[in-house]
Specification:
single chain, 395 residues, alpha/beta, Aspartate Aminotransferase, domain 2, 7-stranded mixed β-sheet, 15 strands, globular, binds pyridoxal-5'-phosphate
Length: 395
């Protein structure tokens, strides 16, 4: 038997993280590799009660096919939750997605022709590179200064089709984009032809101060905003959302309708039962703010434990910033340390991390001496032990 794969599969690569996660399932390994939320932070009881309620009151309707746009009540909740002065979101412009990861794939499908330019931060989220690459774009490192990606890059001629930004507690870098740079980006967008994808799964996970307003609120016609319930409730429910650009211009209308068609072709709709569970949690007796407060307390403590452990156990010439939110420390070891090559040694020592190289889209910008450490999965005592094991591997 013989058969051929589509040419685009040549551009598909395995996720470095998923491969590493397999290794970390071995007994005895303390893994700081995956960005897995702490299981203790999942509101299991509340979800069980919501499930009883939804099935008890809505029965078969909750198990039926549903609309591709998403549950109307959930779209309204998202619109209401995000709306603020200058950014009044029409619930009709909210598309419920199967995780924000699906949003990235739909956007790639609808926006990226082969050869289209995409501006990406260096480093950036691996899953976005994986989602966009099969469509054949040219990934262009987004030039940045100490404040973050440069606004002028959005105005070049002919300009990038798309710019991809994680403004809050970036994965993997951990940094949060300041208010002034957000405003500069929002002001630059209407001067060019680039659509900004603002990917924000971590905004609620702040430990020092809430992040500034999204860039979308300053340029609602030229930003697609992605959000997710993965980090605030549960990633296993696979429910995220996309706020599509507002306005009644031809481009915005066409984008909204093509995204919906792409969603229909992809999975018809996001699981209706899961959408209903989430809506029941949001509108029923569950106190989301109190839940988030607890999650933040837990993760802040874990972050602080990791910050202390890094200062104690890593070689002196390693560099990092304490992230003001999110899930990750980004560590730069001395230049001669290739963290991919060192990984087997770390695994032997009983610890795992994600090497930095796969988070870069370009060989010119890659930092082979960097690594990403998640502080949310392990308990504090394990974090201390994991970093103690890691230290000698980076010397
Ligand atoms: C920056 C970023 N975007 C999107 C996702 C995908 O999240 P989900 O599909 O679970 O909403 C992740 C997950 O880790 C992420 O870090």
């Amino acid at each position: 038997m013989s058969f051929a794969l589509a040419a685009r599969t040549q551009r598909m690569n395995p996720s470095a993280i998923r491969d590493i996660l397999k290794v970390t399932e071995r007994p005895g390994i303390l893994s700081m590799a995956g960005g897995l939320p702490a299981p203790e932070a999942f509101p299991v009881e509340a979800i069980r009660r919501a499930s009883d309620h939804v099935l008890g009151t809505q029965g078969a309707a909750a198990l039926q096919y549903a609309s591709s746009e998403g549950l109307p009540g959930l779209r309204e909740w998202v619109a209401g939750h995000l709306s603020r002065p200058g950014w009044r979101i029409d619930p009709d412009h909210v598309l419920i997605t199967t995780g924000s990861q699906q949003g990235l794939d739909l956007l790639g499908k609808v926006l990226l022709d082969e050869g289209a330019h995409v501006l990406v931060e260096q480093p950036t989220y691996l899953g976005a590179l994986q989602a966009f690459t099969p469509y054949g774009p040219v990934m262009q490192p987004w030039a940045a200064d100490a404040e973050g990606p440069l606004a002028d890059e959005l105005v070049g001629d002919p300009g990038a089709a798309v710019a991809y930004l994680i403004p809050n507690f970036q994965n993997p870098g951990g940094q949060c984009l300041g208010e002034a740079r957000r405003q500069a980006l929002a002001q630059a967008l209407p001067r060019g032809h680039t659509l900004l994808i603002e990917d924000d799964p971590y905004g609620a996970l702040w430990y020092d101060a809430p992040p500034p307003a999204p860039v979308a609120s300053g340029a609602p016609q030229q930003v697609v905003y992605l959000g997710s319930f993965s980090k605030v409730l549960s990633p296993g429910l696979r429910v995220g959302y996309m706020v599509m650009p507002g306005g009644e211009g031809d481009a915005a209308r066409a984008l909204r309708s093509k995204l919906l068609q792409a969603k229909q072709a992809c999975d018809l709709h996001t699981p209706g039962l899961n959408q209903r569970l989430i809506l029941e949690l949001l509108q029923g007796g569950f106190d989301l703010e109190a839940h988030l407060h607890q999650v933040r307390e837990r993760y802040r403590l874990q972050r602080d434990v990791m910050a202390h452990a890094l200062a104690t156990h890593l070689p002196r010439d390693c560099r990092w910033h304490v992230p003001p939110g999110g899930m990750f420390f980004w560590v730069e070891a001395p230049e001669h340390v290739d963290t991919l090559a060192r990984l087997p040694r770390a695994v032997k020592a009983g610890v795992a991390y994600v090497p930095g190289a796969p988070f870069f889209s370009s060989n010119d910008t890659v930092k082979r001496n960097a690594l990403r450490l998640s502080f949310v999965t392990l308990a504090p005592a394990q974090i201390e032990e994991a970093v103690a094991r890691l230290g000698p591997c980076l010397a």
